[in-house]
Amino acid sequence: MARLFFIFGIIFLFIFCYTPVRSNDQEGHITVDISNKGLDFLKDLLIEKAESSLLPLYLPKIENAVTIPIMGKVHKVLSNITVDRIDVISSNVRTSDNGIHIAVSGATANLSMNWKYSYSTSLVPIAVSDQGSATIGVESMEIGLILSLKNLQGSFKLSVLECGCNVKDISIKLDGGASWLYRGLVNAFEGTIISAVENAVSKKINDKIIKLDSVLQSLPKEVPITSIAALNITFLDDPKLSESSLDLEIDGLLSAKDETLVSNHYNKTLQPSFSCKEVDKMVGVSLHEDVLKSASTVYFEAKKMNWIVEYASDRYLLNTSVWRFIVPQLYKLYPDDDIKLNISVSSLPTIKFGKQQIDATIPFDMVIDVSDAGEIIPVAGISMVISASIFAEISGNTVIGSVKLNDFSMSLNWSKIGDLHIRQVQLVISTVLKTVILPYVNAQLSKGHSLPVFHGYKLQDTQIVCVDSWIVFCSDVVSAKKFSLA
Ligand SMILES: *[C@@H]1O[C@H](CO)[C@@H](O)[C@H](O)[C@H]1NC(C)=O
Ligand SMILES: *[C@@H]1O[C@H](CO)[C@@H](O)[C@H](O)[C@H]1NC(C)=O
Ligand SMILES: *[C@@H]1O[C@H](CO)[C@@H](O)[C@H](O)[C@H]1NC(C)=O
Ligand SMILES: *[C@@H]1O[C@H](CO)[C@@H](O)[C@H](O)[C@H]1NC(C)=O
Ligand SMILES: *[C@@H]1O[C@H](CO)[C@@H](O)[C@H](O)[C@H]1NC(C)=O
Ligand SMILES: *[C@@H]1O[C@H](CO)[C@@H](O)[C@H](O)[C@H]1NC(C)=O
Ligand SMILES: *[C@@H]1O[C@H](CO)[C@@H](O)[C@H](O)[C@H]1NC(C)=O
């Protein structure tokens, strides 16, 4: 169970990390809703990245020749024009039916360049030239971007619907040469510089989106979750964009690695009826109970649901001497020997998400082995059914769980030591369950599984809500650095 829990944490993290989507009417088993608050967070992240990744931005050389009275023909060249700094002051993001709109309403930029002029006239037949450098400050720049996010064969197709850049005002400062004299000349280039900046910024944004798109499309459709299980992260449908959120649908079922899941035995699911908007969180990830069912199927089929419970200091019950009065014939045959319980899940567990907990009914086969002079001797086989509830909680960045035993029944399957008083054996087994196994499992689960930090970001104030057949995680995301300072 600790294992299932772990899987579950990983799934959550994975999705969180890749933040994927939805469209034809197919319903995923995992849905991700990113609220406006979450989109805002992503936008800030994106802009922070863009501010540095767009740079340095090289503009093409600008040159022209003008004929000025008396001076004659003057040849001017602006070269090595480089945008080396962009600061975004304010921006906003919103979604609509046709895409994701990002508007940068105030940005400044700094450019550097080299300038040069030369002329010769009939009055001054010797060629005159001068050169120097200049810095240009872009005082106000606006950028508008509309992105479309579609499903392409299970991956995302990100494309630019519109991208515009508008520079309002620039200031030019020359260094070197007789700069004061030629300032006027350079200023004459203002319009050309403005449109060069506008074109270069738009083009670079387009190029970056194309790159990002190819990254998105190359993301694997299946990710390994544990050594034997892989999660299908095929996106179903187009992302659903509304005014207040971006919703994604993911297949979300687990299968054994390198095997295709026959997913038709999973019924179509309804959407979760709970939305994280109610609790004002950045992101909501909903897992359908089929995700856990598929995980338990993989583990069951791989015969990984098998445990040996044996003697340990807190397990004094696992000794035939303790069973002496309950199963006297066992003690007679194997006095003072260790008992080992070989427990394996005998058929697929039933998993149901209840209110605030996960209910599981698990059928087990248990073989009672005694360890006599180093030899393991099976003495009896018991079939049992345990029904338990699992509770999950996220505290800080750690997933913590606990298990409560609801019901327990057993019957004797076979015995090599004659008739057993099954009611009495049941008493011992249930004592072992309650005093040894459950406390052990709970101790493991209460240690919690700490969620790794992804690219410097982690979850904060995560809430878990179970509704119908869904478990919904609502969370905020914060920078791990800020988090640790707090
Ligand atoms: C071109 O500009 C870059 C960045 O401002 C600078 O590092 C480089 O030295 C310049 N090259 C020339 C030839 O001026
Ligand atoms: C960038 O330009 C702005 C004006 O647009 C100016 O105030 C600022 O000092 C410049 N920064 C650098 C590093 O040159
Ligand atoms: C993953 O899910 C998609 C859509 O439900 C399905 O077509 C595909 O076969 C699945 N892949 C595997 C490996 O199960
Ligand atoms: C799917 O739905 C049908 C009808 O509601 C039900 O009989 C069947 O047990 C369901 N299957 C699963 C795997 O839940
Ligand atoms: C089982 O219990 C008996 C009696 O308490 C003890 O002598 C023996 O060492 C125990 N066996 C093991 C393997 O601990
Ligand atoms: C436990 O039982 C299973 C089947 O019931 C068997 O395959 C396995 O070998 C047993 N393991 C041990 C250590 O006895
Ligand atoms: C009875 O025991 C046999 C052998 O250990 C096992 O294969 C079978 O599954 C058990 N039957 C039941 C109903 O548990």
From TrEMBL:
Transmembrane segments: none annotated. It comes from the Eukaryota. Keywords: Glycoprotein, Signal. GO terms for molecular function: lipid binding. Residues 277-475 form the Lipid-binding serum glycoprotein C-terminal domain. GO terms for cellular component: extracellular space. This is BPI LBP family At1g04970. It comes from Olea europaea subsp. europaea.
